[in-house]
Every structure is written in structure tokens, then in C-alpha cells.
Amino acid sequence: MSKLIVYYAHPGHKYSHVNQVMADAAGIVDNITFVDLYRDYPRFDIDVNVEQKRLWEHDVVLLQFPVFWYSTPSILKEWQDLVLEHGFAYGAGGDRLEGKKLMLAVTAAGPEEAYTHKGYQHYPIRVFLTPLEQTARLCRMRFPAPYVLYSALQAPVTGTVQPHVDGYRRLLEAIRDDRYDFDAAEKLDVVGYENLPIRAKD
Amino acid sequence: MDEILLLAFLFLVAGVIAVPIASRLGLGSVLGYLIAGIAISPLLHQLHVDVVSIQHIAEFGVVMMLFLVGLELEPRMLWSMRHRLLGLGGLQVVLTAAAVMVIARMFGQTWSVALAVGLVLSLSSTAIVLQTLNEKGLMKSDGGQSSFSVLLFQDIAVIPLLAFIPLLALPELMDVAGAAAASDDAHHVSLNLVERLNGWQRALVTAGAIGLVVVGGSFLTRPVFRFIAVARLRELFTAFALVLVIGIALLMIVVGLSPALGTFLAGVVLANSEYRHELESDIEPFKGLLLGLFFITVGAAIRFDLLFANLGGVVTMTFGLIALKAMVLYTLSRVFKVSGSDRWLFTLGLAQAGEFGFVLLTFSVANSVIPVALADQLLLVVMLSMLLTPLLFILYDKIIAPRFTASQEREPDEIDEQGSVLIAGHGRFGGIINRILLSAGFKTTVVDYQSEQLEMLRAFGVKVYFGDAMRPDLLHAAGIEEAKILVVAIDERESATELIHYVTENHPHVHIVVRAMDRLHVYELWNAGARDIIRETFDSSLRAGRSALEALGMHPYDAERQVRGFVINDREQMLSLASVYDPDIPAHENVEYVEKTKDFMDRYEQVMQGNSAAFGSRLDRGWVPPSLEDVEAEEEQAGNDPEEV
To answer: Considering all CA atoms of chain A, what is the largest pairwise distance in Å, rounded to the nearest integer?
Structure first.
């Protein structure tokens, strides 16, 4: 059993097509911790002590959010700025996160083709997520491939919501039950619901 | 039944008309009720109403009032008052009675009549004095506490006096009043069960009754309240509160103690209980109405025919009595070190005779102690002195208190330290502002003129100054020229507006942060030149609204944004209206103001009906995804066919 904490951040929760359903699904997975950052801190007054304790007590930290302007929703940036303190997460004596895993579950509005050098977003999605990747590296955390859904705005009509949410639930359960192959995941750029490196139950 | 309704209507109408007028004229509610009583007395006379018997019922208001006073007073405080209660109260009764007795003897009364008269007149009016002190917020002052000690002692003393007065009976009056006394006695005996017991049994029963009140109050109220709460009926709490007060009063009568004392004790016992406020709010209206009724009956019972028959004599006696009582009180206040304006509050406040005087007079006549003719005159003296009491309070308020305020202002408070922030008014509102500024390391200068407040703050080491921020010289001394910010948090709205006027005109460099009482006050302050205006209950209302939204299941962040949207909308509306508000034109006659208000109401209605997104759009603009059509069109334009994904 690994201790998994899911941080969910979506300021427009009620307009969400995919993230809301994902969050609902994550909320009912047993024996993991689920945090809705906008619910816990509607006025952004993030409790650093509480958050550091949470990180300290979990093995896998999963951030679930929609990609807004090639970055995280603002509260997640606020959370990083405040919680990942020098001396706690990095720098002298900052080894509290060492060996843990930082994983992302993101949705992107554009299609997969857009996130190529020829596409209109011009870079692969991983490029936009490098700040978080480097954050993990600085904190000496592992950074497995993000769980990504492209064309999230069209997902309700293309029928990808349900498989993506099911995959999300399987992912969370696999992480919890130590059946997620982090070694394999680290070798991939991104994972989707079709290629999750999950080991079968014993 | 009809008669009761008619009477109730009469009394209520008289009070409803007279009291607001009296309050507006600054006379206080007591005088208003008294005048109302005088005004309707001819009518009551026509209807053959027995004013005195109504008065006896209304006297229960005093019992309720003492219960309420008890609720405000913790046992610890009562214990710390014990010296004043016995010393100040006891000496007041004894010295006043003795002084009156000496004078009565000089006028040729026998010593027994003189003593009875002295005792009757030594008592003051708990009803008038406590009511007025509460109304003026002086109850907690030194003068108020001293007055209360004396009144409580008097209320307790009434019971032994009732036992003592019959011993002074005059043989030659016995036959005349025999019949009346007999009926009165019969009534008395029926309730008082301890009269036939001997001394130690009586002591035992008395101790038992007090013990019952204390123990019952401590341990029984909670389960009873819980039992009643099951029914979920608001009026049951009221019923129980009345049962409690009336029951204790009855118990006290049965064992021959003062009902006022009993309920007061019960109040003290319950002062720390969580039901204190419930009891308070339940009893308060009954107390108010009964006391009002009592004051009306006092006014209505004044026999003007008798008064005019011997105007000179009665008036002389009344003023003589007030002067005499005031002298005794003044002397005692010196001995007990009640000083400053408190001494005058104490001296003038208690200088009347009181409602227990009525009781004792009637009782004395019935027991053949005082001749009827003399009693009638004394009754007038008691009433007249009660009628004059509100005037003495006005004298204190208007002439004596300001003088002490002024002298205190000049003496101790040379403002020696100037902060960059000036705070006018250090109450609940200004106090928090001061704490925030201090905790952020700013230097503040606080100006306030409520001495109790300041003394307490000083004890905590806060820099505060006594004075009226309205005075330009004080503002200057406090450093308004060098101040960056002036925080106006004084309680009086007109004063606040006036202060803003003065400062914006004479010290335009100062940024003013001002507390507004309500919307209209915002407009007035805006008009006076303030721009940083904070409504005192606005933010807490917003938070309450937000809590309600969250409780209804709204996501906390959505609730937060909903409330923020409301704030922006409200502010826009407020600023728009503030700019057309004119303090010299009543709002409903201000054409532009009315037009704008209408406009806002129309817009609001449209939003409510969903015809306009004016209010909603600002809320929803964030994070609404584009429509599916837009997404597809844009993808196509970008060279990606979404259908192929």
C-alpha cells in the first residue's frame, strides 16, 4: 500500500466537463486522500503547516488540474510557492519529499496534434509541464509521465469522458495498491487511459 | 373583558405617544410615562378605574427588573459589593430616617409617627433609578453601582420594616382603621406561612428557601430548559421564564422575604448560565411594559385636587425632602469615596422617595401608625419627588457630567506622543483597528471620551487619550497636521459626519477611514468628503451570507465569488447613489436620486428574472469554456479537424 494524496484545483469547477467527474471519482476511492484546493482555501489563505504535514505523510502526490495558459490554475501556483519551502522541500535540510513521487493528471483543451512542433501549440505538452518536472527534481522526487486527456472541451461529444475517468480511477487504485509501474511510467512522455502501465492484481 | 381591553388600550396609547416625545426632548422614558399617566388621569377618573390596585400589579415590574439586574451581575461581583451594600445602603436608610424623624419631631409629630414617616421616606425608587441608569448606560459606573447597592439594601429592608411598623401603632387611630387593617391582615396571613412559626423555625425556613433558589437555580434550570426545548416552541421558554420569576416571588412571599431579593438572587445564580440571554430577552418586554404601566399609574394617581389644596406645603416638603436626602447621600458618598461625576449621580439619583413608600404608607395607615390626612400629604410628596427625579437626572446629564468631562479632558491628557495614525473612538470598532495597526508596528494615537474604556485600555498598556475628537484644538494636539491617516470610529453618526466635514476642509492631506452606520450614513459621509467609508456591519453580513451559501451546498470558492460579485455590484450602486445624494433634500424628493434608485431596482429585477446577465456575467466570466461550435470552428481554422481526433 502506498499513501496517495490527490490535489484537485479547478476554479470553474461547475463548468468543467471532465475534471469535475474525475474529482468525483477520485473522491470516492477508498484509502487515498483527496483535497479540493479551492474548497479548502476559497480565499487562498493556504495553511502551510497543514500542507507540509500532508506531504510528509504521503508517498505519492498527484496534482489534478486543467492546463490554463500552459500552466496550473492560480491556487496551485500559490500552493507551490508557499508549501514547497526552502528547508522543507529543497535546499539545506530540505529533504522531506525525497524519494516521493510527484504525478500530474491534466486536461488540455487542444487536440494531441496541436501539441507537436507542427501544431498550433508548437510544443509537446511535456514542455509546458517542465516547471513542475523540474520542481520534482529539485525536491528529489520522481516524476512519472503525466496522465493526459487532450481535446477535453470536446470530450463529452467524442465520448472520451467516461474512459478517461475510468482510467483515472484505475490509476489511483493501482498507485494505492502498489500495482502502478512507476519505472515504466518514467520512461514514457505521457500516459492516457489506453496505455496505463498497471500490473495485474496478484 | 371589555374593560381590560379598554384599559390596556388606554395605557398603551398613552405610553406610545408620550414616551417617544419625551425621549426626543431628552427627558427619558420615565418622565414620558409619568406625564402620560397625568394626561390620562382625568379619563381614568371618569371610568372609575382603581389606579392603585393596578399599580400593585405593575410593581411586579420592579421584581422582574431586579431579576434582570441579577443576571448581569456575577456572584463574584455581588460579593465584592458587600461592603457598599451593607454600609452605604444601611447608613443611607438609618441616617435619612433619623434626619426626617428629627424634622418631623420639630413640626410637632409624635415620635412614633415621626419614625414611621422617616422610614417611609428613606426609601428611594428602584424602578425609576434603575430604569434611568440602564437607559443612560450608567449602570456599570461607580455612581451606578453605588446607587444599586443602596437600592438593593432598601428592597431587602422593606420586609423587616413591614414587620416593624405595626409596633408603632397609635391607640387613638386603631378604631378608625381597624376594619381596613383586619382585611389587609387576613390577606397577608393567607400567604405568609411562617408567621405562626417561632424564631428558629422561621430562620430555618428562610435559609431553606434561599438555598432552594440557589441550588435550584444552579442545578434545575438546565434540565428543565432541555425538557422544554424538546417542544420547540419559543413561547414555552417565555412561559418558563415567567414561571421562574413569579414562582420565586411567591416562594419569597410565603416565607416572608422580599420577592425582589429572591428573584435578584436567582438572577445572580443564573448570571453564568448559558440561558442567561434567553431569560433576559424573555423577561425584558414584560419588565418594560409593567414598569411603564407602573410609572403611568404613579402619574395617574397624583391627586391634583389635594395637591392644589395645599400646594405650598407639599411643594416645600418635597423640595425639603429631596434636599435632605441629597445631603445624606452626598455625605455618604464622601465617606465611601465615590468621587467626581459619580458622586453627583449618586446624590441626585437617589434623592427621591420611592414606590415602596406607597406600600409602607398604605400599610402604616392600615395599621393605625400614621393618620390618614398626613398620609395623603406624604403620598403626594412621594409622587412629586418621583416626578422630579427625571429632571434631576437631566440636571446631572446636561450640567454636571459635562463639567467633569471638561475638567478631566484638560488635566491629565497632554498628548505627548504623536502617531502617524489617529484613531477617534476606541470602542468595539476602533479598538480592532487599533490592534491591527499596532500589531503591524504602526504608532497610533487614540482619542476617546469614555473614561471606563480608556482606563481599561491603559491597564493593558495601550496608548489612549481622553477627549472629544470633535474639538479642533484636541485634534491639533493629537497631531492631525502630521497624521497620515485619521480613523473615525465614533459611535455618534452626526458627530462622525461633522468631523469628516471639518477634517476634509482643514486638513485635506489626511486620508480618512470612517465607519458608517448604514447606507444613508455612507451618503452623508461621502457628501462630507470621505472616500474610504466602511459600513460597520457590511463585512460581517457578507460573511454570514457566504456561510449560508456554503451551508446550502455551494462550493466555497463559488460562494466566495458570488459574494465578491455582490460587493462589486453593491459598491457601484452605492457610489452612484452617493454622488447624487443631497443631505439637504429628503431622499424621496431628490429627483435624480429617485431615478437612479428606480433604475437599479429595474436592473436588479431583470437580473432576478434572468433577463439580464449584468450582475451574473462578472461572476461567470472566469473559466466558462467556449461553446462547442466555437471550439470546432477554431480548431478547423488552426488546421486541426476535431472530428478526426
So the answer is: 50
